[in-house]
Amino acid sequence: MLLTLLLGCSSEPNTGEKNKLSAREFADQLQASEDAVIIDVRTPEEYAGGHIEQARNMDWNNPDFGSQAATLDHSKPVFIYCLSGGRSAAAAAELRKKGFKTVHELTGGMLSWRAEKLPETTAAAVSKTETISDQQYQDLIDSDKLVLVDFYADWCIPCKKMEPTLKEIARELKDKLVVVRIDADANHGLCRKLRVQALPTLKLYKSKNLVWEQAGIIREAELRNQLAVHD
């Protein structure tokens, strides 16, 4: 779901204070946890420059943050960080609102991690191996608004051409439309089940029912018309 909030370095209120950990505490808790989900909410460029091993990059300022968060397992402990702690505090608060019970924050972010000379890596993220389950997909399309699902791939030129249009429509129609973007390369099983055979593929849902779909690029006027018809 599209969620664009640009935040400074202020942290959230008292909620979750007990889960704000120093770099050493954060590292110790990670080591003790067998099923930790590690989230780096910085930009892809910051992430590429060095991150905690096994961390998944989910840029807090990316409109796709909400839909990416919806794919996470609520039962697993989440360890979240950014550069200095501001973005991760905001993202942690959002996850708690969404029902995540255990969200640990790295106080001081990567700056404190590096000050303690703790290990980091530039290896590729593990996010591509995580897939959206059938139930998670059903949760994504369960809304009192229209839900437009966009199946895309990073290498797909038509997908890149459509992305600005989808973001603009999402901003304009935020009161009546939710746009969810799903990486087809990371969700082969889901694409097979939903018969996604071309990219991009758009699927429009109303009250969880599929009311329209489109394989391949579509003109903005035609897309807007379909949204208006099913509003």
Structure description:
The chain has 231 residues and is α/β, with parallel strands linked by helices. The protein contains nine helices and nine strands. The chain has helices at 23-32, 44-48, 65-69, 86-97, 109-115, 134-140, 157-172, 188-193, 220-229; strands at 20-21, 37-40, 56-57, 78-81, 103-106, 146-152, 177-183, 201-206, 209-215. β6, α7 (157-172) and β7 form a beta-alpha-beta unit. The relative contact order is 0.14.
Kindly summarize this structure in a few lines:
The chain has 231 residues and is α/β, with parallel strands linked by helices. It has helices at 23-32, 44-48, 65-69, 86-97, 109-115, 134-140, 157-172, 188-193, 220-229; strands at residues 20-21, 37-40, 56-57, 78-81, 103-106, 146-152, 177-183, 201-206, 209-215. Residues 1-16 and 125-129 have low confidence and may be disordered.
